[in-house]
Specification:
There is one protein chain. This protein has 84 residues and is mainly alpha-helical. It is 42% helix and 7% strand. Helix 2 (12-23) runs parallel beside helix 3. The longest helix has 18 residues, at 66-83.
Length: 84
C-alpha cells in the first residue's frame, strides 16, 4: 500500500488501518500467523494519479477505499478456500 504524499492526502491511512485490523497486523507485525498475507506500506508506487494505490500480487488497484480493500481480501480468501 502506498502511503506517499498523494495517497496519504487522499485517504491511505484509513485503508491501511482497515487492512491491518482485518488481518490482525501492526506496523511491526506485517505477516499473518498463517503466512497467507504480508502487508507493507511504501513511500511511493509511482501512480499518484490513482491515489490511494494498493498492489496485490502485481495487480494495481487505484482510488481504493477501505471497503474495497476489505472486499479484495474477502475475494482472495474465497479463492483460496476454493483451491483447497
Amino acid at each position: 500500500m502506498c502511503d506517499g504524499t498523494a495517497c496519504h492526502v487522499r485517504g491511505s491511512s484509513a485503508v491501511i488501518d482497515a487492512i491491518r485490523e482485518r488481518l490482525h497486523l501492526t506496523s511491526k507485525k506485517i505477516t499473518t500467523d498463517d503466512m497467507m498475507y504480508t502487508f507493507e506500506t511504501v513511500s511511493c508506487l509511482g501512480a499518484c494519479g490513482l491515489a490511494p494505490v494498493l498492489v496485490v500480487d502485481d495487480e494495481v488497484y487505484g482510488q481504493v477505499k477501505p471497503e474495497q480493500a476489505l472486499a479484495i481480501i474477502d475475494k482472495i480468501d474465497a479463492e483460496e478456500k476454493g483451491n483447497a
